Structure to design on (354 residues):
């Protein structure tokens, strides 16, 4: 059954590539995979969403940003090598559609991404301004559109089966009309709005534990007429400065340790869920909370991060609320393995292998 899905995916992917890197406006392939979750659930395994296309390789330019552009592949391989999944067990998304993007982003903003200079500012990689935009679209934006498609597939799958995890996504610095901090497409609001449009959910809560304030998601949540609420845990001493207004923000001081962090998490998550009563929780689980991360001052270790992720997922499931987990930022060498360890802990509890 799983093998059949993969073959279909390969066909769709080849179709996209044959149309060139700019084919995304023509495709809405995610819909073609709407039947996947039901098939995956027959196995009793937590659906994991991943495509090799998530990994960015852009002529070496990707190494000019601290982001580990092959992080997703490392997480995928770690889970596979542990014997927890085979290649065919992963649900493979394709690009988010332009129609879905336009429910959140302005046409002017999406058009501006064809300008290498504009894109270089978002990606924080200056030399990319010299790369033709069609190549940047193919090498950088396409992977992000596939990961955004993955977030939509993850949310849809979670609604059907309670829990699903995207091994990518979480671009929380992307606004309706601008990007920033390596985030181009505001994938989580895009996914929530797509599913709302289909009548599949009324209200979603984003729980954001990436070390940075999710300023893009926050601004979109504020403008969502209560369709989207946000509980955001972040390091107040780092980007973005200034911070934007938020529904419910936990701004930690510089150098916060794991114990302090987890105490605040365990206090606020239940109260936020009780207040907002969401149909879906989208959990943005950044690994830049780890102590070695060069872009934050948090002092969490890998065990703290696993405990954080497990608490959010386990608590939500104990309340019977569907959870879609995405991975957000993380820039230390420990990032991929910490994510993998955390996901393995969740699978240990929620995989039904009986
Ligand atoms: Zn971050």
């Amino acid at each position: 059954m799983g093998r059949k899905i993969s073959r279909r995916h390969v066909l769709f992917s080849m179709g996209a590539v044959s149309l060139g890197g700019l084919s995304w406006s023509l495709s809405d392939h995610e819909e073609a995979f709407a039947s996947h979750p039901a098939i995956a659930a027959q196995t009793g395994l937590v659906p994991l969403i991943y495509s090799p296309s998530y990994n960015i390789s852009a002529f070496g330019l990707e190494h000019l940003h601290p982001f580990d552009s092959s992080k997703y592949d490392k997480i995928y391989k770690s889970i596979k090598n542990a014997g927890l999944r085979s290649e065919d067990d992963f649900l493979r998304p394709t690009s988010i559609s332009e129609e879905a993007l336009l429910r959140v982003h302005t046409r002017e903003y999406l058009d501006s991404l064809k300008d290498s200079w504009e894109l270089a500012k978002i990606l924080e990689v200056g030399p990319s301004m010299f790369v033709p935009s069609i190549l940047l679209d193919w090498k950088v934006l396409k992977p992000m559109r596939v990961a955004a498609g993955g977030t939509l597939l993850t949310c849809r799958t979670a609604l059907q089966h309670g829990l699903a995890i995207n091994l990518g996504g979480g671009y929380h610095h992307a606004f309706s009309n601008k990007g920033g901090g390596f985030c181009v497409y505001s994938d989580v609001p895009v996914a929530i709005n797509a599913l709302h449009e289909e009548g599949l959910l009324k209200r979603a809560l984003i729980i954001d534990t990436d070390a940075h304030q999710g300023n893009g998601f926050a601004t979109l949540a504020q403008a969502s007429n209560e369709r989207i609420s946000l509980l955001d845990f972040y390091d107040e001493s780092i980007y973005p400065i200034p911070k934007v207004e938020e529904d419910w923000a936990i701004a930690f001081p510089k150098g916060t340790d794991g114990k302090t962090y987890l105490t605040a998490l365990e206090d606020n998550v239940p109260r936020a869920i009780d207040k907002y009563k969401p149909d879906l929780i989208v959990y943005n689980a950044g690994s830049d909370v780890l102590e070695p991360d060069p872009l934050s001052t948090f002092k969490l270790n890998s065990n703290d991060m696993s405990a954080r992720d497990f608490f959010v997922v386990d608590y939500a499931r104990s309340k019977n609320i569907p959870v879609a987990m995405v991975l957000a930022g993380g820039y230390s060498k420990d990032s991929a393995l910490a994510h993998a360890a955390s996901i393995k802990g969740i699978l240990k509890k929620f995989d039904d292998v009986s």
